[in-house]
Design a protein that fits this description.
Layout lengths: L1 H41 L19 H5 L20 H7 L6 H33 L1
Helix pairs in contact: 1-4
Length: 133
């Protein structure tokens, strides 16, 4: 009985450690999503009117902005086919202010978001084989 209690305690401790390893990168990634949204607002790009989720396929097209594309006629063509907003609607909301400091903030937040997403994937992958055995 004592061995069973000890095993249960070890499992509980291991699960708590794993949850902490996943929880923090998820919280950090969420914070960087907010930073990306703020940078886009500062750039006066009204993304929220046409794309509800910045982490969606169309929302992640902000990589084009980070890569230097600013043409409001070109950016809407990158939208995912599942996006409900028309190219014309997206074009109207993408005329903004592309000051270097806002693009820099967007770039940093996007990179950090992807870093924390990768950490979540790594933590989940490292947990799954142990749990199945």
């Amino acid at each position: 009985m004592q061995n069973l209690a000890h095993s249960a305690s070890l499992i509980r401790t291991t699960m708590m450690n794993h949850q902490a390893r996943i929880k923090h990168p998820v919280e950090y990634a969420a914070a960087h999503i907010q930073h990306m949204q703020k940078a886009l607002m500062e750039m006066n790009l009204q993304r929220h009117r046409v794309v509800s989720d910045i982490t969606s396929a169309t929302g992640m097209r902000i990589r084009a902005i980070v890569a230097g594309e600013r043409n409001p006629d070109v950016l809407p063509t990158y939208r995912d086919l599942r996006c409900h907003s028309s190219i014309e609607t997206i074009r109207a909301e993408l005329v903004g202010n592309d000051r270097d400091e806002h693009v820099f903030a967007l770039t940093q937040s996007l990179e950090l978001y992807h870093t924390h997403q990768a950490r979540c994937s790594t933590a989940t992958a490292s947990w799954n084989p142990w749990w199945r055995s």
